[in-house]
Amino acid sequence: MIDNIDQLPPYYPGIHGCRSVEEFHCINRVEEGTYGVVYRAKDKRTGETVALKRLKMEKEKEGFPITSLREISSLLKVKHENIVTVREIVVGSNMDKIYLVMDFVEHDLKSLMETMKKPFLLGEVKTLMLQLLRAVAHLHDNWILHRDLKTSNLLLSHKGVLKIGDFGLAREYGSPLKEYTSIVVTLWYRAPELLLQAPQYSFPIDNWSVGCIFGEFVTMRPLFQGKSEIDQLNIIFKELGTPNEKIWPGYSELALVKKMTFIEFPYNSLHNRIGHKLGKSGFDLINRFLTYCPERRITADEALRHEFFTESPLPVDPAMFPTWPAKSEGCQHHRKAQSPKAPSGGKQFQRNQLDADEDRLIPNSKSSNKVVDQPQSSGFPYERSKFEKRIQHSILNKAPSLEFQK
């Protein structure tokens, strides 16, 4: 229960003095994800084009979702050129009208790769990977797990700048490790320790996802496209070989390994698929990301020092990246040769995305749900806010370490 509502912590950028969404003109809807809808909009005050992400909320009486608090607190805690920037929070008339105002970025990489006629050059792959690794290293240095790295959550600007977005599953972690839900990370990018129901996990789950993304940059298709958790494991084992105690100490003690017997695939056949595209050092790097044992898996910091990035062809200057038409510049999006959407776990994923020790913060019971009818001149439903303090207090009370990195 929230109390002492008037005794708020000091001002934090992006929270205090929330504006109304009426101060933005909606241009078009860009995308809808698990945790919210994204619009392209124009700030009436400055004329700038921005991205407005409306957070998915339940009924106000159920409180402020912990996933939204995590996303806001994570994005306010980290500041990096390769992580999407939250400029401010704008609000509406009740608890289900909350938007994050972010820098507008033209592409998400999944949609872009589906429409590209030619694959990325190896030098371009290196540039994308360097930017991704710098962002992931920064998150891990700040004790944040993203927990949903995939190409649809990576944005690319016309200037060749990659940014990690969608922090709806992000959370802080520490030492000693706690037990978190294993139903995180979209299935095709989910680390084997999660699929095998390991009771604890840490930053290596993000690094496995980075390895999957690396392979996708090279092949233009997801590496492991399972239809269920078991199917995903079988596909991984068939490609990389079935793990054992020698290469993964503690493997035989994992919950799912005790319950099931997996087919024995003795060899790693990934080289036959992508080795010729990556060269010796590139294949070594992706193998280090796709290492079964989490403790032996390469970190983002270590990967940044890998020889793959210093040998020919060298990484391309981001400013020299080609440009592509942005799908968000029109209201209708046409895609060719679209790959199937990665399974996310369905209803079970939605139910279990909150860790067992956390649920929802309870809002002030005196708040009003009344919505005033007004013209929809902005392109959004008419919205006004009288609960800024409650949102600010909820965020700061739940995540007290909200400061920008210097």
Automatic annotation (TrEMBL):
Residues 323-384 are annotated as: Disordered. It is an enzyme of class 2 (transferase). The keyword Transferase applies. Residues 24-309 form the Protein kinase domain. Keywords: ATP-binding, Cell cycle, Kinase, Nucleotide-binding, Phosphoprotein, Serine/threonine-protein kinase, Transferase. Its cofactor is Mg(2+). Pfam families: Pkinase (PF00069). SUPFAM superfamilies: Protein kinase-like (PK-like). GO terms for molecular function: ATP binding; cyclin-dependent protein serine/threonine kinase activity. One of its GO terms (cellular component) is nucleus. It catalyses: L-seryl-[protein] + ATP = O-phospho-L-seryl-[protein] + ADP + H(+); L-threonyl-[protein] + ATP = O-phospho-L-threonyl-[protein] + ADP + H(+). PROSITE patterns: PROTEIN_KINASE_DOM (PS50011), PROTEIN_KINASE_ST (PS00108). Belongs to the protein kinase superfamily. CMGC Ser/Thr protein kinase family. CDC2/CDKX subfamily. This is cyclin-dependent kinase. It comes from Dermatophagoides farinae (American house dust mite). The gene is CDK11B.
